[in-house]
Amino acid sequence: MASDAQTSLELAGSLAQSEHVPIADGAWRATAVLTLLYWFGTLDRQIAALLVPLIKADMKLTDLQISLIQGLAFGLFFMLLSPVMGWLVDRYSRRMILFGGIIGWSIAAVCSGLTRSFGGLFAARAGVGGCEASINPTAYAMLSELYPPNKLSLPLSLFVMGGNLGSGMSFLLGGAVIAWVTASPPIDLPLFGTLSGWQLAFVITGLPGLLLAPLVFTIPESQQHLARKATRQSTTGFGDLFRHYRRFPLFYAAHGLGFALIMAFVVGLQSWNATFLSRHHGWELSTIGYWIGIAQVGSALIGLAVHGWAVDRLFATGRRDAHLTYFAVMCALALPCGVAAYLVESGALMLVLYSVAYFCLMAFASIGPAALQIATPAQLRGKASAVYMVGVSIVGTILGPIIVATFTDKLFGDEAALGESMALFAGLTTGLAALLFTIGRPAMRRAIAAAMPPSA
């Protein structure tokens, strides 16, 4: 009791001190640039979900093969390269790392539209995943050193809004491209021949990154990162990170697995929403693209800043477990809507219910990293972000779409049961995540108290 009272007093002093820590010069410019880059990165990442029926018909693929392209191809290489990116982020120029990643994922996205085989498409999506492993550890580390802890959730939420806008725009753009291609003659490119609609959509969404990549050089390198490089303080390894994890194992386990389950909810359902609406409600792909895009863009514009602001305010009151507490509540609210969305008879009502669930959970990609950055020493944040991204990649990006397909093919044994598979998946992911966040709250309080700087 005495120890807990002492750490509470220390945290109160630390929070009072952090209220007066200024935001670094160029921080909001950095937030805007990173948000824009994440927008276009997610644009070419998520458009594959809308194009599933066209790709499947054109290449004559099964649901399981489609899930491998959407989940394993992207997620495996995202996972494998995340630790490498985290190691680089703590040692070298973050701007150069991000610049190389943007060029790489843009070229791979364009190549996704030029291939004509399952193997070629798998390799191209793997290239997108491997290169996009650069953006999250880089952005999290940059922003965490440009803003004080009590003001970090809002800029991270704005950054993540770029990803949500990109996801929504991928459906809007994909729907527009499909409608345009349907009404237009085939497009022939020298050397590559005739491109079908889904191929053209990949090419169009990949090209902007090549033009936007130089914007990374308008982002300031933080003074803390430059000082660590100059004094060789950034030469920590993953062994140092895992020793830190052993001090607070319950927090890092509950935090990592909980947010990975939310990632699985988002990626797993997004990967199959277009197919579900087409297969079970008879919607045209262009219509699906417009309405899913509008729903996701609207939710992102309204919700992300609100979620980030709410968590920052809750944390500023002295709640050391603010991030996990908030998301436990959001999971409880999302669960019934996520389950019901795939069991109702109306496609329009399905979109409404899904949008409510998505609104509750959309900020996971900012609230989760914000908690991680605050609880982790500065010289370990890049590596901690990389390990975190490995976890969400395995459980979310790789397994999410595959589990839904496996429920459909193996558990129910009927493609007509896709709705039941998605409902079951939505309930399991949100329920388990809510339980993990609740269990991890005391450990988060201890980790935050230990990580906060001593009061002046």
TrEMBL record:
Main location class: membrane
GO CC list: membrane
Keywords, sorted A to Z: Membrane, Transmembrane, Transmembrane helix, Transport
Residues spanning the membrane: 67-89, 95-115, 156-180, 200-219, 250-268, 288-311, 323-344, 350-374, 386-407, 422-439
SUPFAM superfamilies, alphabetized: MFS general substrate transporter (SSF103473)
Single GO MF descriptor: transmembrane transporter activity
Membrane topology reported for the UniProt record: Multi-pass membrane protein
Record keyword Transport present: yes
InterPro entries: MFS (IPR011701), MFS_dom (IPR020846), MFS_spinster-like (IPR044770), MFS_trans_sf (IPR036259)
Domain annotation Major facilitator superfamily (MFS) profile: ranges: 30-445
A Pfam family this chain is assigned to: MFS_1
Subcellular location as annotated: Membrane
UniProt keyword Membrane, yes or no: yes
Protein name, as recorded: Sugar phosphate permease
Organism annotation: Sphingomonas jatrophae
